[in-house]
Amino acid sequence: MNPQLNAIGLVTTDLAASLSFYRLLGLDIPADAEDYPHVEATAGGIRVMWDTVEVVESFSGKWTPPTGSHRVALAFDCGTAAQVDAAWARFVAAGHGGTAPFDAPWGQRYASLVDPDGNAVDLFAPLPG
């Protein structure tokens, strides 16, 4: 059997802020998840896992966060161009930013957010026609 992608892990410096951000994307994260050092939720059949810096350091000995721009990008299919715009508006209202929605030359309505730990989170949907 070939390895199958099963999970994406994110290391966070502020678990509550990160979970709040991903709840805005519709991930079903338990209400008391902030009380735990490791959290998991399933999105589109893939597990998304959060660990605090302290947890990662405890099992790795020493962890150094990446420097420069993001090292991972997550992309969320919003279904329609209007839903990309609506999701973007929700995040802006919640104090998050990034690249506002635009019609990309590859045929998608596209926007990019930045999560509380600096990871890129893209919103997209096919353009009509």
Write a compact overview of the structure shown.
By secondary structure, the chain is of the alpha/beta class. Helices cover 24% and strands 34% of the residues. It has three helices and seven strands, in the order βαββαβαβββ.
How would the blueprint of this fold be written?
Layout: E1 7-12, H1 15-24, E2 38-43, E3 46-52, H2 53-60, E4 73-77, H3 81-93, E5 98-103, E6 108-114, E7 120-126
Parallel strand pairs: 1-3, 4-7
Antiparallel strand pairs: 2-3, 5-6, 6-7
Can you describe what's shown?
The chain folds into two domains: 1-63, 2,3-Dihydroxybiphenyl 1,2-Dioxygenase, domain 1; 72-129, 2,3-Dihydroxybiphenyl 1,2-Dioxygenase, domain 1, CATH 3.10.180. The chain has helices spanning 15-24, 53-60, 81-93; strands spanning 7-12, 38-43, 46-52, 73-77, 98-103, 108-114, 120-126. The model has no long low-confidence stretch (mean pLDDT 90). The strands form two sheets. A four-stranded mixed β-sheet has the order 4-7-6-5, with helices on one face. A three-stranded mixed β-sheet has the order 1-3-2. The radius of gyration is 16 Å and the shape is globular. It is built from three helices and seven strands. The chain is an alpha/beta fold.
Keywords summarizing the entry:
single chain; alpha/beta; 2,3-Dihydroxybiphenyl 1,2-Dioxygenase, domain 1; 2 domains; 4-stranded mixed sheet; 3-stranded mixed sheet; 3 helices; globular
Instruction: Return the string of H and E elements.
Output: EHEEHEHEEE
Question: What is the tally of helical segments?
Answer: 3
- Main sheet: which strands, in order across? 4-7-6-5
The CATH superfamily of the largest domain is identified as 2,3-Dihydroxybiphenyl 1,2-Dioxygenase, domain 1
What fraction, in percent, of the residue positions are helical? 10-25%
Question: What is the CATH topology of the largest domain?
Answer: 2,3-Dihydroxybiphenyl 1,2-Dioxygenase, domain 1
Task: Supply Rg.
Answer: 16 Å
Please indicate the count of domains.
Answer: 2
Question: What's the level 1 CATH class of the largest domain?
Answer: Alpha Beta
Distance between the termini: 40 Å
Q: Which architecture name of the largest domain does CATH use?
A: Roll
Q: Which regions have little confidence, pLDDT < 50, spanning 5+ residues? A: none
